UniProtKB/TrEMBL annotation:
It comes from Arthrobacter parietis. This is Glycerol kinase. Glycerol binds at residues 82-83, 134, 246-247. Its EC number is 2.7.1.30. Belongs to the FGGY kinase family. Key enzyme in the regulation of glycerol uptake and metabolism. Catalyzes the phosphorylation of glycerol to yield sn-glycerol 3-phosphate. Inhibited by fructose 1,6-bisphosphate (FBP). InterPro entries: ATPase_NBD, Carb_kinase_FGGY, Carb_kinase_FGGY_CS, FGGY_C, FGGY_N, Glycerol_kin. Residues 263-452 form the Carbohydrate kinase FGGY C-terminal domain. Residues 4-253 form the Carbohydrate kinase FGGY N-terminal domain. Pathway: Polyol metabolism; glycerol degradation via glycerol kinase pathway; sn-glycerol 3-phosphate from glycerol: step 1/1. ATP binds at residues 12-14, 268, 312, 316, 413.
């Protein structure tokens, strides 16, 4: 009897495989980073072949560390960086171009062209999303328009599209040798092409974008058996049974199954998701409407989402571009070397601003600089930028829901940073709670897969696995919180209207 479920977490900076036991505890893991490719300013790419090679390697690492074989694994769950688009030849398995990453901004002219008729909210009622460079749809169109021979191949039915969940699933289940071409409702809801009510591709929007319907994966639920791992792989014959986009997976892993349940993930970017139950809520405050999850034949559960483009990647920027720190964890000690931010605010609009502003014309700014400022203040301001952006998203969520959040469950790599979490509680004015298992993204994918094969009985059993590790309570007085927020909002306005015809 298999005792474990394995989750493949195909993220923005790395691919991981994590083995979980029945209590939701981590048994073993493997992880490998892949190259971040920046061909031009604003362009961000990944090599899909490298991602698939790394995925196979980390599965092997995770199994070998715990001395496990495929016979010990009940199911495979997959979670992934959403909106990162891969287009490949179904006959050869070769991508026609690198994966275009969710952070990439090259498709702004396509957004402008499509928004000329009806504005950026042209399709929002159907798909829950504004026209933006963030989502997969414009990336597919760019590849078809700019890669030689791609459109002809697509129209001949030879090309397939998928976010990285589809790419990994297709390869895992056989690739050109009978691979399953699917996606789940959560990933489909990030393309600009899925109707939120029918959970199917909108043929008129596909036609408007010039994307052949034959490229699109079949939309399935988040928890069902899609197929088995191919006989050529280490996990051969193990069912692939769960797919959730990374932020929805983290919500699932945090056991936010009730309407009003919420979580905030601190990763490359930050993503807050609020469960709205079976109701589709259209935001009036700059949030996205998305699918939270769908379990088998049950009705879909929807969510509001606040997406922030740059949080953890700002710390990487301090390390890799400026050389202020040598490793990411050093930022906490450097930030603690000063009492406050010294009047400095960093607005990391490297690829424009996402929620709640949606300003593609914004670019990053460091404001409030004086001769007094040192690298400690810069480090502190970088951490605080994450907390300030989260506060603005939480305010939008409260306004849309009409109910003020009483606390915030958090996860992701940055929640190990005590200084950041304390400042987060201070600037929100509510408790911030970290669970014992912070790898909630992978855990959510494991849960979805395990439910499909009866490894876990129901969501009540999953909720009983959740336990609190640490809680931060706000200590900042109201006047200081208001002052800091006022300065932050002033700093944000300095990033607007930077990009024009002469400046990209």
């Amino acid at each position: 009897m298999p005792q474990y479920v394995i989750a493949i977490d195909q993220g923005t900076t790395s691919s991981r495989a994590i083995v979980f036991d029945h209590q939701g505890n981590i048994v073993s893991s493997g992880q490998k980073e892949h190259e971040q490719i920046f061909p031009k300013a604003g362009w961000v790419e990944h090599n899909p072949i490298e991602i698939w090679d790394n995925t196979r390697e980390v599965i092997g690492n995770a199994l070998s560390k715990a001395n496990l074989t495929r016979h010990d694994i009940a199911a495979v769950g997959i979670t992934n960086q959403r909106e990162t688009a891969v287009v490949w030849d179904k006959n050869t398995g070769q991508p026609v171009y690198n994966a275009i990453v969710w952070q990439d901004t090259r498709t702004q002219p396509i957004v402008d062209e499509l928004a000329a008729d009806g504005g950026v909210e042209r399709f929002k009622q159907q798909v829950g999303l504004p026209l933006a460079t963030y989502f997969s749809g414009t990336k597919i169109k760019w590849i078809l328009d700019n890669v030689e021979g791609a459109r002809e191949k697509a129209e001949a039915g030879d090309l397939l599209f998928g976010n990285t969940d589809s790419w990994v699933t297709w390869n895992l289940t056989g690739g050109a040798d009978g691979g399953v071409h699917i996606t789940d409702v959560t990933n489909a809801s990030r393309t600009l092409f899925m109707d939120l009510e029918t959970l199917s591709w909108d043929s008129s929007i596909l036609e408007t974008f010039g994307v052949p319907a034959s490229m699109m994966p079949e939309i399935r639920s988040s928890s069902e058996v899609y197929g088995n791992v191919h006989s050529s792989q280490l996990l051969r014959e193990v069912p692939v049974a769960g797919i959730l986009g990374d932020q929805q997976a983290a919500t699932f892993g945090q056991a936010a199954f009730e309407k009003g349940g919420a979580k905030n993930t601190y990763g490359t970017g930050n993503f807050m998701i609020v469960n709205t139950g079976e109701e589709i809520v259209h935001s009036k405050n700059g949030l996205l409407t998305t699918v939270c999850y769908k379990l088998g034949d049950a009705k879909p559960v929807y969510a509001l989402e606040g997406s922030i483009a740059v949080t953890g990647s700002l710390i990487q920027w301090l390390r890799d571009n400026l050389g202020i720190i040598k490793t990411a964890p050093e930022v906490e000690q450097l930030a603690k070397s000063v009492e406050d931010n010294g009047g400095v605010y960093i607005v990391p609009a490297f690829s424009g601003l996402f929620a709640p502003y949606w300003r593609s014309d914004a670019r990053g700014a460091i404001v409030g600089l004086t001769r007094f400022v040192n690298k400690g203040h810069i480090a502190r301001a970088a951490l605080e930028a994450t907390a300030f952006q989260t506060r603005e998203v939480l305010d939008a969520a409260n306004a849309d829901s009409g109910v003020n959040m009483e606390d915030l469950r958090v996860d992701g790599g940055m929640v190990a940073n005590d200084a950041l979490m304390q400042f987060q509680a201070d600037i929100l004015g509510i408790p911030v709670i970290r669970p014992k298992v912070t790898e909630t993204t992978a855990l959510g994918a494991a849960y979805a897969a395990g439910l499909a094969v009866d490894f876990w009985k129901d969501t009540d059993e999953l909720a009983s696995n959740w336990s609190e590790d640490k809680r931060w309570l706000p200590t900042m007085d109201d006047a200081e919180r208001d002052r800091q927020l006022r300065n932050w909002k002033k700093a944000v306005t300095k990033t607007f209207d930077w990009v024009d015809e002469d400046v990209q």
